[in-house]
Design a protein that fits this description.
This protein is 51% helix and 21% strand. The chain has 24 helices and 23 strands. The termini are far apart.
């Protein structure tokens, strides 16, 4: 068949060729655009995630400052050298400022402290005048009464700086009204390196702080940049997250492309005065973008060449029936003739149409499949990140209940696992039943409950009244219900169906509208703690095998942690029982000896054979028993420890001062030598008791030897690897090596050096503070006790 220039068939071939070229090019461009948009979306999500973490990091630093201010205030109110309350009121700001400088001079040196009454009268002030007058020029120096009562901290922005102002409420002893301590601290005093480690940024990404529209501090250089960022600029993501106080924009800084994400900092009237932000480098994104552009160009050129070459050949053969159709149609227009298509031609036309339709359907189906897989991949990546954050954020060893609460919140958070509801059921071994203890509801679901429950989708009580129904959610732990099956196997059970079809063991669960749900057991063959019921209430989602696999990783880790905690607790309980048993036996043996002495004395009294020496001996026995009773109480004391930064030099100086009178009475020279003014992380009360016990033992050993030269030396110094060394040396009676070896065994005593149970207390305190203790002694020479602690390393500011 020969095609004429103006034939319909030739025009069809030409148009289809052009269409094929156009479709190929469009598909190539569409592929590139989709890929670039996907990368851009990931970059935006990364920026959003990082700025949220950054905000949490700065809140954490501010909370640390709040604790420092509280400790400084408490220490100042208990200041021993000022007895008059009016005098303390006048000097309180100065004392608080000094206490803060002791905590961290680099952080609090350039700060400003005010003490304000409830009527907003300044009682005292101290600190940087530069900070004071900078704040006066831009805000009220004394906050409003509403701010004092309602705010814990807020921000003040100036043209050249940004401050956080922390408010701590207190009351003088004789005052009937509250007073306030206000700390004004430049944000530049916080360590950006500490924040960088918390946020986990790449080296090319930068942190910075904005005051109004100007860059004032951070890692983008030292030069000031005018109009650094217009905060009112609208961006694609900016409007979406503006309600959460996050802002986004793109900017070239020193010829380097960055994507900026900022978290707003508000003043006492909730107006934005500055922001903290992250500059995410776009270099890698631009490289991918240029590469994709090259690929698109290559694909488009290839499509033109291939389509031009093959189009005529393919369509000439495939569309030959259309040539017949065109000729017949032309004949119909001129005169009435019978149109008789050959059966083969009709079949070919239908085949072509069906093939084109089938090809279109397959392309659309594959496109939807790829989009769905990409969405599932993103969901799984987000779940893995959420599981990682859960494992890093919870501390089961310290507080299991709080850890369960955090896990439930993460499971129902939109930036976490994204489930709608999570109910924790705890196993009660005594009653052999599961009891509802905690519930968490997705914020989006609770905020849109009316929209979600329209029609027959559900009822509002299934969300609004879930916490009230929690005490009624009790399930007998027995075979046949879903909870028992999941906990006995230790595996996650999931069901993409309506919950009323299944046996929960309590009919109330069937009325709560569970659909597409899973059961997360915290149990195995050895332990049974409880389980968590999770579902997708109000969301058109199915539970996939991939998310179950991710949750299984979380399950395995939690079960291991819980088992380790239980085993450690059992071990400690066993050791405590053994310790109490040994101490009790020691106590009973000592008391039997005392009773024998008392009985002997009574017999002598009856027979009138006693003398004053017997009374002195009995008094000494009673005093020793009282001392050992006190020691045993300290050993058996299981109260909660109060660990914090303790200045060791100050504590030892106080101990030496407390012993001045008794040392002078016994002619003992007690001296302290120190070249360390840092801190250790410790329970101050326990450390004080420990050193008192050591000095008492040394004093008794010196008195037993009874030489003219009586001395106890305490040396405080530092060693390598941030270690603190304390040596207490006496020239008492000392011990032989055999006696020293025997003394190192718990619950033994030596009449010459009288450490005994006191040494057990010392060992216990040192071990509790992760320290090391060694004892060296020679008879008639003296004893040296050497204790090593880790230095408390405070945050270093830039």
């Amino acid at each position: 068949m020969i095609l004429k220039k103006d034939s319909l068939l030739l025009r069809i071939i030409t148009y289809n060729g052009i269409a094929m070229i156009f479709v190929s090019a469009v598909m190539a461009v569409l592929f590139g655009v989709i890929t670039i948009n996907e990368i851009n979306t990931r970059l935006l999500d990364k920026s959003r995630e990082k700025v949220i973490i950054l905000n949490k990091a700065y809140v954490s630093l501010i909370e640390k400052t709040e604790r420092d201010l509280f400790d400084a205030l408490i220490n100042s109110l208990n200041f021993g050298n000022i007895g008059d309350e009016n005098e303390l009121q006048d000097k309180l700001a100065l004392i608080v400022k000094n206490q803060l400088n002791l905590e961290s001079y680099s952080k609090y040196n350039k700060s400003y402290v005010q003490v304000v009454s409830e009527k907003r009268k300044v009682l005292s002030e101290n600190g940087s005048r530069e900070v004071k007058y900078d704040i006066i020029g831009n805000a009220e120096l004394v906050p409003s009464l509403k701010t004092l009562k309602d705010k814990i901290f807020y921000f003040v922005g100036t043209n050249g700086n940004l401050y956080v102002r922390i408010i701590q409420k207190f009351r003088f002893n004789k005052a009937n009204e509250n007073s306030f301590v206000i700390l004004s601290l430049p944000l530049s005093n916080y360590s950006l390196q500490k924040v960088r480690e918390f946020v986990d940024l790449k080296i090319e990404d930068k942190l910075f702080i904005l005051s109004k529209n100007d860059y004032i501090f951070g890692e983008l250089g030292t030069a000031r940049i005018d109009n650094f960022l217009k905060m009112n600029k609208k961006t694609k993501l900016g409007e979406k997250f503006k309600e959460f106080g996050f802002y986004f924009s793109e900017l070239d800084i020193k010829d380097e492309p960055y994507y900026l994400a900022l978290s707003a900092l508000n003043d006492d009237s909730d107006q934005m005065v500055g922001s903290i932000g992250i500059a995410i480098s776009k270099k890698s994104f631009l490289a991918i973008k240029y590469m994709l552009a090259t690929m698109i160009l290559a694909i488009s050129l290839l499509s033109v060449i291939v389509s031009t070459t093959l189009c005529a050949r393919i369509f000439t053969k495939l569309l030959s029936p259309l040539s017949i159709l065109a000729a017949k149609t032309k004949g119909i227009g001129k005169e009435k003739i019978d149109v008789d298509f050959e059966e083969e031609s009709v079949y070919e036309i239908r085949t072509i149409a069906n093939s084109i339709k089938s090809m279109t359907d397959r392309i659309k189906k594959n496109e939807n499949l790829l989009l769905n897989r990409n969405e599932k991949l993103n969901d799984n990546l987000n779940r893995i990140i959420a599981v990682e954050k859960i494992l890093m954020g919870v501390d089961i060893d310290k507080n299991f209940s709080q850890s369960i609460t955090e896990i439930l919140r993460a499971l129902t958070s939109e930036i976490g696992m994204g489930y709608s509801r999570a109910i924790y059921l705890e196993y009660n071994e005594e009653k052999n039943q599961l009891e509802g203890k905690e519930v968490s509801i997705n914020h989006y679901v609770s905020a849109n409950i009316d929209k979600i429950t329209q029609g027959i989708s559900g009822f509002s009580f299934q969300i609004n009244d879930l916490k009230k129904l929690l005490p009624l959610l009790k399930v007998k732990y027995e075979p046949g219900n879903l909870f028992w099956n999941s906990m006995e196997t230790g595996k996650i059970g999931f069901f993409n169906d309506k919950g009323y079809k299944y046996n929960f063991g309590n009919e109330l669960f069937k009325s709560l509208g569970f659909s597409n749900f899973l059961i997360f057991p915290i149990s195995d063959d050895e332990i049974k703690v409880g389980c968590i019921l999770i579902d997708y209430f109000g969301k058109d989602k199915l539970i996939s095998n991939e998310e179950v696999e991710v949750l299984t990783l979380l399950l395995m880790n939690l079960v291991i942690r819980v088992k380790n905690d239980i085993q450690e607790e059992r071990k400690m309980t066993t050791e405590r029982i053994l310790t109490m048993s040994k101490i009790s036996n020691k106590f009973l043996d000592s008391n039997e000896k005392l009773l024998e002495k008392v009985e002997s004395f009574i017999e002598k009294v009856i027979n009138r054979e006693y003398n004053s020496k017997d009374i002195v001996k009995i008094n000494k026995y009673i005093e020793e028993r009282k001392r050992q009773n006190g020691i045993m109480k300290d050993v058996l004391d299981n109260s909660e420890r109060n660990f914090k930064a303790v200045n060791l030099e100050k504590l030892l100086s106080r101990i030496v001062k407390d012993h001045e009178i008794i040392m002078k009475k016994n002619a003992i020279n007690l001296s302290l030598f120190t070249n360390f003014n840092g801190n250790i992380y410790a329970d101050k009360k326990k450390i004080y008791q420990m050193f008192v016990e050591i000095i008492k033992n040394s004093m008794e050993a010196i008195l037993i030897r009874n030489k003219l030269d009586k001395k106890i030396n305490i040396v405080l110094t530092t060693a390598e690897n941030n270690r603190v060394v304390i040596e207490v040396t006496d020239n008492g009676i000392g011990m032989e090596q055999m006696e020293l070896n025997q003394l190192r065994k718990p619950y033994t005593s030596n009449k010459k050096n009288i450490l005994g149970l006191g040494l057990t207390t010392i060992y216990s305190v040192v071990r509790e503070h992760k320290g090391i203790i060694t004892i060296a002694s020679e008879q008639d020479e003296g004893t040296k006790i050497r204790i090593i602690f880790n230095e408390y390393r405070e945050e270093k500011s830039l």
